[in-house]
Amino acid sequence: MKKQLFILALFTHSLLQASDFGTIFMSATLVVLLLTLIFALTLYLKNLQKEMLKNYALFELTNIATLYVSHRGEILDANQTAQRLLDYTKTELLHKKWYEKLLPDEQSIQIRHQIHQTLKSDDRIAFTSHLIRANGQVLEVNYTLSNLASPLHGAVLTLVDATENETRCKELATVKERLDKTNHALEHLSEQFKVTFDIAINGIALLDEHGQMIYLNRALTEMFEYNEDYLKHLGLGLLVDEAESVQALLDTVKRGEKIDKMHIRSLTRSGKKLDIDLTMGYLSEIKQYYIVVQDITKALAYTTELQENEKHLKHRVQTDCLTSAYNRSYMEEKLENLMLVKKDPFGFIILDIDHFKMVNDTYGHLVGDDVLINLVTALKEKLSSGDTLARFGGEEFVIILPQASHEESLTIAQKLQKHVASLSFENCPKITCSFGVESFDGTQDKRTLLLSADKALYQAKESGRNRVVDARTMEESDYTI
What homologous superfamily is domain 319-477 in, according to CATH? Predict the structure, then answer.
């Protein structure tokens, strides 16, 4: 640049020495042109320098191994990626013939000849060959050699490790194969799910986060007698009336508290009452709720019927079929429970119809049955709901008085004896009864209690009947009528 300015100054000085005006004008024009040329050249050099810096940065930072080589095959530059791939430093590579440095000896001459022939007719050649790293390791590499466009000289050689690419391709192929198998399995499962979903006997639905149904099965539409679109419109409103209750259900389930068989009563489109069990949960992975609706209307009715049948059967097992008083089996079970489990004091009365054989012989057994039935009815009228009246056998009955003292039991027996004696039954003879009274004090067993009460009854009959005898004293209370 200094030399150019010196020439310009010298030329100007010569111009000033000239006396010819034409010569001066021509010289001035040449000066302007020279200045313009110098300015354009300076700008071009700056732009060229910028482009060279930019290209060099791209050359150095690219992740593709790249060599800058001359047409004679000498390595003029090598980027960092190439140095790592080849395991050589830049100093070890510069000014070496790349095909002699990198290729095996048996391939060097063949490749060199092929390159020269090809580059005469084409600006680019690509081939695959082996490469020997500095440590002796042999790699299979994809080579690409491209001529630089004029005015640049030389060529760019790129190296891609085909071994690594092949491994990645195999890995990708394996992954793709697995994905294909997984997709096939998922499609199969999806079809199975849809079939199972649709043929399920319980109503099933998926709901979005607002409680609106986005998918439901046929059983749900048949259960409530609505079409699919209307059920989707109703959402959880199908099962719960108030919006607050719907939101409460959604919040509860979203917190992880699964609802399991919550009993709800609902109505179908035709107004039929439904008893259903609702199971509900939240699928956090897909942010959706699921509900399972089980119609238990028939099952509930059947259960109620079973309970009634069980109650009726239990009553038949525990009661005397003729009089409806409890039977002896139930009476003994009751005694064992009171004496062995509760162990509380209670009163015990045993009674017998006086001269009942004469009633059967005179009036017949059917009238005798009516007498037994009427007697049980009369006794129940005077007993409390917690008392137990049982037929002990034939015309003999037992009364258990829970938590009654011995004195209270005597009083009750005396009232019953007077009440029976005062009754008149339609189409039946008048009757009287004899009573034996005992009580449990926590020390007797069942056999001892029964024998003691039975002895008191025997004493009442031997003493003239129609009376009450206290087993504790074996003295009769005279209430003879």
Answer: Reverse transcriptase/Diguanylate cyclase domain (3.30.70.270)
Contact indicator for 331, 390 with CB cutoff of 8 Å? yes
Q: Which of 396, 399, 397, 378 is nearest to 388 (CA)?
A: 399
Other beta carbons within 10 angstroms of residue 355's beta carbon come to 16
**In terms of C-beta density within 10 A (0-12 exposed, 13-18 middle, 19 or more buried), how is residue 345 classed?**
middle
* Residue 238, token pair as written in the block: 């199908």
pTM over 0.70: no
The answer for 154, left when phi > 0, alpha when psi is -120 to 50, beta otherwise, is left
pLDDT 10s digits, 149-192: 766 677 888 888 877 666 666 766 776 777 676 556 545 545 55
Q: List the beta bridge partners of residue 397.
A: 351, 391
Contacts 24+ apart (CB under 8 A), 255-264: 256/282, 261/294, 263/296, 264/239, 264/240
Task: Give me the architecture of the 62-166 domain, per CATH.
Answer: 2-Layer Sandwich (3.30)
pLDDT tens per residue across span 250-284: 888 888 888 888 888 888 888 888 888 888 888 88
| CA dist., res. 446 & res. 427, Å (int) | 38
